[in-house]
Amino acid sequence: MSTKEDVLIVEDSPAIGMLLKSYLEKLDYTKIHTCDTGSVAIKTFNDLVSENKQPIVLLDYMLPDMDARSVLTQMLEIQPNARVILETATEKEDEGIKELIRLGVYQYLEKPIRFEKLKETIETIEKEQSFFAKESEQVEMLKEAEQQAEEKLFEQINFILKSANQITLNKIIGILGFSDDSISDYLQKLQQEGKIIELGEKKELACNQCDSVRTSQIFYCPSCKSTNFRLGKLIECYDCGNISEESTYENDVCPSCKKEIKALGVDYRVMQNHYICNECKDFFPEISTEYMCLKCEHKFKLEDAHWRSSVNYKVTNM
Predict the structure, then answer these.
(1) Are residues 11 and 59 in the same domain?
(2) How far apart are CA 86 and CA 237, in angstroms?
(3) Element of type H or E holding 167
(4) 46 within a domain of the structure (yes/no)
(5) Is there a contact between 141 and 301 (Cβ–Cβ < 8 Å)?
């Protein structure tokens, strides 16, 4: 099947029309349409454009029912990027020809037409149309890719919302890793559909280096900085001052002085909810804490943190 474009010959001379058609057929142009009046040319051109075609037009300067200017302007109204080749014996410097060129004539061919020049002009048009067709295809592929990326983004937001009873806009942005108007637009759409509701502004602790609200609290031993610790109950023997875990006082006997402890508050005291480091064996009533940013891995103290506010959302019907 030929891949050549349609060609519309608008020529009131049957002899010239037949010569043009015969030559174009030799160049493998098979979809050739001929007409000898401007009105028929405009109708034929409109029909072709309605079929999503981009015909190349060979337009005679002199027609029996209207001038080339009228035909050209009407064709350009139908298809602003129409490729119209003007054929005329009138010199290019003529003011009428200059006006047509200003209006949008693609090329000017002087009669008698040199077929090699016609071939060169039409092949140039075909190359341009092929280029723009590929460009249009690339644009469509890009649009499709953008649509797929947007759909994937919405799926990610849905997953995030379903995984949390409540979550802030800053937290959603932090998990996604970027900020975009499409995120807010999609959340607004979900609100309109009754799937989420706003709970007002919420302030969150943020990294003092990158401002991300995706942070994790880290607990560690104040002595050796180890995170390997446990919660336990300690007993202090008043007689010798030994402090150790409850499990070390077998049969209520102090592991240090070997004396039996009997009366609470007299022989010993219990130290509830103390933390015991598994590394350095130190114990402490409170553990140390700091925060780590999950985005940039920067560690910081609570007093050095930044605070950020954003809308807090509650999932109602996801």
Answers:
(1) yes
(2) 112
(3) strand 166-168
(4) yes
(5) no
Helix (H, G, I), strand (E, B) or coil at 35: strand
Residues of the domain holding 238: 229-282
With CA atoms as reference, report the closest residue to 19 among 142, 114, 96, 140: 114
pLDDT digits (tens, 9 = 90+) for 95-111: 888 888 888 898 888 88
Contacting residues for 8 by C-beta, under 8 A, at least 6 apart: 33, 34, 35, 41, 44, 45, 48, 55, 56, 57, 58
Match 């460009």 to its residue by tokens.
135
Q: Read off the pTM.
A: 0.52
What pLDDT, in 10s, does the model give residues 185-230?
A: 999 999 999 999 999 999 999 999 999 999 999 999 999 999 999 9
> Which H or E run contains 57?
strand 56-60
Q: Are residues 158 and 128 in the same domain?
A: no
**What percent of the residues of the chain are helix, what percent strand, and what percent coil, each to the nearest 5?**
40, 30, 35
Domain of 188, CATH number, reads 1.10.10
- For residue 25, give the DSSP letter: H
Q: How many domains does the chain have?
A: 3
196-229 exposure pattern, b = at least 16 Cβ within 10 A, e = fewer: beeeeebebebbbeeebbbbeeeebbeeeeeeeb
Q: How much is the CA Rg of the chain, to the nearest whole Å?
A: 42
